UniProtKB/TrEMBL annotation:
<dbReference type="Pfam" id="PF00581">
    <property type="entry name" value="Rhodanese"/>
</dbReference>
<keyword id="KW-0808">Transferase</keyword>
<keyword id="KW-0963">Cytoplasm</keyword>
<dbReference type="InterPro" id="IPR001763">
    <property type="entry name" value="Rhodanese-like_dom"/>
</dbReference>
<protein>
    <submittedName>
        <fullName>Thiosulfate sulfurtransferase GlpE</fullName>
    </submittedName>
</protein>
<dbReference type="InterPro" id="IPR023695">
    <property type="entry name" value="Thiosulf_sulfurTrfase"/>
</dbReference>
<dbReference type="InterPro" id="IPR050229">
    <property type="entry name" value="GlpE_sulfurtransferase"/>
</dbReference>
<dbReference type="GO" id="GO:0004792">
    <property type="term" value="F:thiosulfate-cyanide sulfurtransferase activity"/>
</dbReference>
<dbReference type="InterPro" id="IPR036873">
    <property type="entry name" value="Rhodanese-like_dom_sf"/>
</dbReference>
<feature type="domain" description="Rhodanese">
    <location>
        <begin position="17"/>
        <end position="101"/>
    </location>
</feature>
<dbReference type="GO" id="GO:0005737">
    <property type="term" value="C:cytoplasm"/>
</dbReference>
Length: 101
């Protein structure tokens, strides 16, 4: 994969039910602490190298932000760092919250 792909909240939920994806949340720490997709990990400048080191290149990764815009840039960055299965969550955490409360 030379570019990230986009994924809907329904598709993401299906992957998570199968425990087939790692979710990385790029929102600020306060927003993350107030609510996040179960099992997701915060991703920021301080831990990005650690996350990359702990992620297999073919592992499925879903990047989440507030509305699905900023996650696209972060997803592309992860692809450029060698990850092959990277998705940006369409609509971000806002869409996830609307779909799943």
């Amino acid at each position: 994969m030379t570019s990230f792909q986009r994924i809907s909240v329904i598709q993401a939920s299906e992957l998570l039910e199968k425990q087939a994806a790692k979710v990385l949340d790029i929102r600020d720490p306060q927003s993350f602490s107030q609510g996040h997709i179960p099992g997701s990990l915060p991703l920021n400048n301080d831990n990005v190298q650690q996350i990359l080191d702990e992620t297999e290149e073919d592992e499925t990764v879903i990047v989440v932000c507030y509305h699905g815009i900023s996650s696209q840039q972060a997803a592309q960055y992860l692809v450029e760092q060698g990850l092959n299965q990277v998705y940006s969550l369409d609509g971000g955490y806002q869409a996830w919250g609307q779909a799943f409360g």
